[in-house]
């Protein structure tokens, strides 16, 4: 990925698109079982500390794309959580006679699940990648690796992540 030329011209964009689609495709269930993401994050962090520049470059690129994809999923989960909380609030405002207890229980269960996804898994995954990869690679000796980190930091989708931890 770090090499240019006609052979690798489309490979970089296809690789990043694959990562985005993989995470988007796993957004409802597989991403939360911790097994897949823990292994992916472990591999990325281990290879990003390699002495081989190509590994550092590629893992930094994949890791930053992974964080961006996770931020997109966190935004969707946050919107689902807000909708669920509004529905629950509306249902609880109804009188005892009109209130559907099964619906209230279902909404409370969904609210708890979404909150655990957002506050637990997604936040942990993003912070592991960000602190394990960005914090070390933005000071890398190679300019192209530093530029990947700074470009992703400048990405507006990272503002969501930064507000979770720093503001």
Summary of the model, kept short:
By secondary structure, this protein is mainly α. It is 78% helix and 0% strand. It has six helices and no strands.
What's the total number of strands? 0
Q: Describe the global form.
A: elongated
User: What is the typical, i.e. mean, pLDDT?
Assistant: 80
Regions with little confidence, pLDDT below 50 for 5+ residues: none
Give the helices and strands, then pairings:
Elements: H1 9-25, H2 35-48, H3 53-93, H4 101-137, H5 143-154, H6 158-166
Helix pairs in contact: 1-3, 2-3, 2-4, 3-4, 3-5
Notes on the structure:
The chain is an all-alpha fold and 167 residues long. It is built from six helices and no strands. The protein has helices spanning 9-25, 35-48, 53-93, 101-137, 143-154, 158-166. The mean pLDDT is 80.
What are the defining features of this structure?
elongated, 0% strand, mainly alpha, 167 residues
């Amino acid at each position: 990925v770090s090499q240019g030329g006609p052979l690798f011209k489309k490979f970089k964009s296809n690789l990043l698109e694959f990562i985005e689609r993989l995470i988007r495709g796993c957004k409802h269930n597989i991403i939360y079982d911790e097994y897949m993401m823990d292994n992916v994050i472990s591999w990325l962090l281990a290879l990003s500390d390699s002495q081989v520049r190509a590994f550092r470059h590629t893992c930094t690129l994949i890791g930053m794309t992974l964080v961006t994809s996770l931020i997109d999923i966190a935004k969707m989960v946050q919107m689902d959580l807000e909708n669920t909380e509004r529905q629950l609030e509306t249902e609880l405002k109804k009188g005892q006679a009109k209130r559907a207890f099964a619906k209230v229980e279902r909404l409370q269960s969904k609210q708890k699940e979404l909150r655990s996804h957002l506050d637990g898994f997604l936040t942990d995954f993003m912070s592991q990648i960000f602190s394990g990869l960005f914090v070390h690679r933005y000071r890398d000796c190679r300019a192209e690796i530093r530029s990947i980190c700074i470009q992703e930091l400048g990405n507006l989708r990272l503002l969501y992540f930064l507000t979770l931890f720093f503001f």
